[in-house]
Amino acid sequence: MKFFATLFHNYSYLFIIFILITALISDTSAVAIDKRKKKEKCVQQLNADDANKLNKFYKTLDIDSDCENGEVACIGKDAAKCDHGKFVLIPCATTLQCFALPLVNKRGTSTTCDTVADKEARFAAAEKCGG
Asked: What are the boundaries of each domain within the chain?
């Protein structure tokens, strides 16, 4: 028993150093994980930037604008889809308007009919990402 007490006493400083290094490594890992989470959240802001650019572009379009087959856009308050080089309007319901919106959980945007309140909420949430 005396052997273990002597061993512990002689090497206790190594044990303390080991504990300190372990704590330092653990703390650094937690910071790195937290930074990754913030970067993931900021995908929303990137999406909001893209959606804003699309919404500005949509304001330049009209029913006679050139388009590529399958392209989706907003023209006025309505959605539109390109068919054979011409936009075909897809009217939104009376309480909705067409917007490019930022996706919430992954990179990208969605062009759809939605309420003004939901549009504003999505862009407001994107502003808060990362911090």
From this structure: 1-41, 43-127
Cα atoms in the Cβ-side hemisphere of radius 13 Å centred on 84: 0
The token duo for 78 is: 């309505």
- What distance in Å separates the CA atoms of residue 67 and residue 90, rounded to the nearest whole number? 15
Alpha carbon dihedral 81, 82, 88, 89, in 10-degree steps, equals: 30
pTM over 0.70: no
Return the H-helix or E-strand segment holding 117.
helix 116-127
pLDDT tens digits, residue range 1-52? Answer: 555 455 445 555 444 444 444 454 544 444 444 555 555 558 999 999 999 9
C-alpha of 26 from chain center? 28
60, two tokens: 């330049």
> What is the helix, strand, coil percentage profile of the chain, to 5?
50, 20, 25
**Residue 79 DSSP SS3:** strand
